């Protein structure tokens, strides 16, 4: 359950990126970060969201943002997703779900009468000091950048 709110310190994390390199939120101290959690590589909604961020990446960077995607997929899956859609930003391979748990984005979901644990699609906009500026829970996958830059 997402309990983090604007003004809270963004939890630091240590995980691996798509290439198996260590990645920490604290590596981005002094930069604004769009940290978006999505359920699965190469699914329609996740592809739409990631491609919207890709298509607007230059504008996000102009405004000082770095983009990091997080899912519970592994490094190889992330590599294929990045290659297929030419994503210019890093993806965090959170296979042990420790990053999800720190941010409250791994929770009980319901779909077609079935209950299961999964990623709650959520974006955290984090400022240069590592504080959460905004939590976007109702993500519009095809127009997500507009929600961030509004």
TrEMBL record:
Protein name as annotated: thioredoxin-dependent peroxiredoxin
Enzyme category, top tier: oxidoreductase
Listed GO biological process terms: cell redox homeostasis; cellular response to oxidative stress
Assembly, per entry: Monomer.
GO CC list: cytoplasm
EC nos: 1.11.1.24
Active site: 46 (cysteine sulfenic acid (-soh) intermediate)
Cited Pfam families: AhpC-TSA (PF00578)
Catalytic activity: a hydroperoxide + [thioredoxin]-dithiol = an alcohol + [thioredoxin]-disulfide + H2O
Keywords, in A-Z order: Antioxidant, Disulfide bond, Oxidoreductase, Peroxidase, Redox-active center
Region: Disordered, residue numbers: 1-24
Domain of life per record: Bacteria
Similarity comment: family membership: Belongs to the peroxiredoxin family. BCP/PrxQ subfamily.
Organism (species): Ekhidna lutea
UniProt xrefs under PROSITE patterns: THIOREDOXIN_2
Ranges where the Thioredoxin domain occurs: 4-150
Record-linked PANTHER family: AHPC_TSA FAMILY PROTEIN (PTHR42801:SF4), THIOREDOXIN-DEPENDENT PEROXIDE REDUCTASE (PTHR42801)
Function description: Thiol-specific peroxidase that catalyzes the reduction of hydrogen peroxide and organic hydroperoxides to water and alcohols, respectively. Plays a role in cell protection against oxidative stress by detoxifying peroxides and as sensor of hydrogen peroxide-mediated signaling events.
Lineage: Bacteria, Pseudomonadati, Bacteroidota, Cytophagia, Cytophagales
């Amino acid at each position: 359950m997402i309990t983090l709110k604007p003004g809270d310190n963004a939890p630091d994390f240590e995980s691996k990126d798509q290439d198996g390199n260590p990645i920490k939120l604290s590596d981005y101290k002094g930069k604004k970060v769009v940290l978006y959690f999505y359920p699965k590589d190469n699914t329609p909604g996740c592809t739409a969201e990631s491609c919207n961020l890709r298509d607007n990446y230059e504008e996000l960077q102009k405004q000082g943002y770095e983009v990091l995607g997080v899912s519970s997929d592994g490094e190889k899956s992330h590599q294929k997703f990045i290659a297929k859609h030419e994503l210019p930003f890093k993806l965090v391979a959170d296979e042990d779900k420790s990053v999800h748990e720190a941010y409250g984005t791994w929770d009980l979901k319901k779909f077609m009468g079935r209950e299961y644990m999964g990623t709650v699609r959520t974006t955290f906009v984090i400022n240069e000091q590592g504080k959460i500026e905004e939590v976007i829970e109702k993500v519009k996958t095809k127009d997500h950048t507009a929600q961030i830059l509004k």
